[in-house]
Amino acid sequence: MADRRSSAPSAAPDLPALGGRRSSYRERVADALRAALIAGELRPGEVYSAPTLAARFGVSATPVREAMLDLAKEGLVDTVPNKGFRVTEVSEKQLDEYTHIRSLIEIPTVVRLATTADPVSLEALRPAAREIVTAAAEGDLIAYVEADIRFHLGLLALAGNSHLVEVVGDLRKRSRLYGLDALVRAGRLEASAREHLELLDALLERDERAVHAVMTRHLGHVRGLWAAP
User: What is the pTM of this model?
Assistant: First the structure.
């Protein structure tokens, strides 16, 4: 596989699906487009046509157009009549709102897991937490986001509420795609990455106070990094 940090995006069929999803070719194309957004290859505010993106990714225009419509439903792009799709620009206010909603959902849910989650299930998340740290150190944004999604949504899934996982997953897609490339260049992503291991250790120690502190710091830390990349 080609280096996923390179400026030229890989063909969609060769890119791994974010979050482990591979259920359809259309979804794999959408995942490839998300990967290009994460790596900064598709820029906020820019307009891209389906044929141009199809040529760039080495696929036909139809799955690209369908995938972009999926991304439009997620709020990642806007349709521009007769031109294509504009990558959505996210304001500081929107990022603040996303972070606030995530804190209202994720912090109490994860704190409860300190007393309810099976230690074996928690320990099973450690490989993903380590992958996050490794990807951050290597500046591999696609691998970082893949592992980050697996860890956080896998952790929330232990609460047994699939709708909660779906809501948080949507919020993460709307926010986590922005600013990561700048954070890597500034060498500031590893500190946030290491917090995943710290959180896991606190959960395994059944320390609710420590879990609350790490989760609060993690969300605030990430928002702070977005604000000043």
Answer: 0.75
